[in-house]
Amino acid sequence: MNRREFLLGSAASAGLAGAATWINAAPSQKRELTIQPASFKLRTRRTMDMVSLSPDAPPPVLLGRQGEPMQLRVINGTEDYTAMHWHGLRIPNAMDGVPYLTQMPIAGGESFDYEFTPPDAGTYWYHPHCMTMAQMAHGLTGVMVIAEAEDPGFDADQVVNLRDFRLDENDAFLPYSTARGAARSGTFGNVITANWRQAPVYDQPTGGLVRLRLVNSDTTRIYRLYLSTDTARIMAWDGHPVEVPVALPSAQAPLLLGPGQRVDLAVKMPAHEGQTIELLADLPGQPGRVMTQLRAVGRDLARDLRDLKPLPANPVSRPDLAKAEVHDFVFGWTPEGRAPDDGYCGSLGYSFWSINRTPWAGDAARDTGPLATLERGKSYILRLRNESPNLHPIHLHGLAFVPIRSNRRQLPPLMTDTILLLKDEVVEIALVADNPGDWAFHCHVIEHQKTGLAGFLRVT
Ligand code: C2O
Ligand code: CU
Ligand code: CU
User: What does residue 401 show for φ and ψ, rounded to 5 degrees?
Assistant: First the structure.
């Protein structure tokens, strides 16, 4: 086995395909995914009561290809209800995985066939949307890579799924939610992982170009990230190729990556075998904590960042701002006296938050119509106002949108599905309502979502 085969082999066995592995391999777009109990050594002892798609490993990276159909049969091997959502994919509403809104919850022992053709290439992810907090907190968050139709020219690909777990001193789960956290910035985990490991080291080709796909699949934490190198470039943001230059994050100006958000970087590996590049995070009390390391292995490939062409744009319609109708949304506290609906998909028992004073704290939008009805094909501006001191990563299903202005900062016009609203911030986003259906619209701090900060938009 030569070194290159070894690299690809070891990457593949970690569930993290090297670029060549999926671009040349037979497509793996048809799969059965069984949600099941799992255990894994996250720290020093095996943590039981985890939820994954195999008994002893993190949820795998699901690979698809832009414009090619995928068939994913999700089998519920647990006793709780579930439903799987494909975050960021602009697919038909019936495949979106939101209980009561797009499908009925999947009971234990039952399955649901998800079939769709991803229109966009990029980095996406998947997670349940029923028993969301319980199942995500216990492990069920995975990355989805939709490959470009043509090889974009990287030497390797590295997925980094960032997330925390909340464990006690015996490495057993602590309660995943607290009323105090849910009403403020969320309940934080205390074991911080990349691909379920603490500071894993990945071998990458010396002098090569690595596509580093960072995914924040945590239920709560906003990561502040940067690299130990400046020979890197941001290539894509929340799946979509960047069309304007975006400054590389640094220790002084780290990248804020909220729950649900992704960023793809092109990283040039050092020219000497054994040298490393670190992904660092500023955590409370731990500035510059190493999240993962890339270690140069093999002969120098002597690549140059300038070898890379920009990634081809995804086929997203551009909104016509002159004709766009404006809709307002206020994210804030909930009116008194609305108890959460306790259905099959779990509630956290409180109603703290709301959109436009309407909380959606249970599973079903009972007595709650759409927050807005958008006419198919028309352009809209959504004005999002955060009237709380907490940050909210606001996510819209089924459609991509672009920020156009903020009252607090300069926002580059990066196509996205999740925008981080800062304290007291008002952000206007624009979109073309070109995908019909009822699309969930919520905060991706799951305790906020599950205590009211959720709703849906209807596209006719
Ligand atoms: Cu990532 Cu409604 O979800
Ligand atoms: Cu989503
Ligand atoms: Cu929130």
Answer: -140, 170
Residue 368: CB atoms within 10 Å? 16
| Residue 43, token pair as written in the block | 């720290």
What distance separates the 2 farthest-apart alpha carbons in the chain? 66
Dist CA 453 CA 257 (whole Å)? 19
Rounded to the nearest angstrom, the distance between the alpha carbon of 16 and the centre of ligand 3 is: 31
The whole-chain average pLDDT of the chain stands at 92
Question: What are the pocket residues of ligand 1 if the criterion is a CB atom closer than 6 Å to any ligand atom?
Answer: 85, 87, 127, 129, 260, 395, 397, 440, 442, 444
Higher pLDDT, 285 or 368: 285
- Please give the model's pTM, rounded to 2 decimal places: 0.94
Helix (H, G, I), strand (E, B) or coil at 283: strand
Annotated domain spans of the chain = 3-149, 163-307, 321-459
pLDDT digits (tens, 9 = 90+) for 356-376: 998 887 777 666 789 999 999
Ligand 1: atom nearest CA of 442 is 2
CA of 200 to the centre of ligand 3 (A): 30
Pairing mode, if any, of strands 255-257 and 223-227?
antiparallel
Residue nearest atom 3 in ligand 1 by C-alpha distance: 87
Specify the pLDDT at position 16: 42
| Closest by CA position to 60, among listed 115, 6, 133, 139 | 139
Please determine, for residue 42, whether its predicted confidence score (pLDDT) is greater than 60: yes
- Ordered alpha helix ranges (H), 139-283: 179-183
Q: What is the pLDDT of residues 120-144, one digit of tens each?
A: 999 999 999 999 999 999 999 999 9
Closest residue by CA, ligand 1 atom 1: 87
Distance 127 CA to ligand 1 centre (A): 7
Q: Which of 148, 76, 70, 68 is nearest to 109 (CA)?
A: 76
Q: Is 3-149 CATH 3.40.190.10?
A: no
Residue-wise pLDDT for 208-261, tens only, equals 999 999 999 999 999 999 999 999 999 999 999 999 999 999 999 999 999 999
Is 163-307 in CATH node 2.60.40.420? yes
Does the domain made of 321-459 have the CATH classification 2.60.40.420? yes
Q: Which amino acid is at 316?
A: V
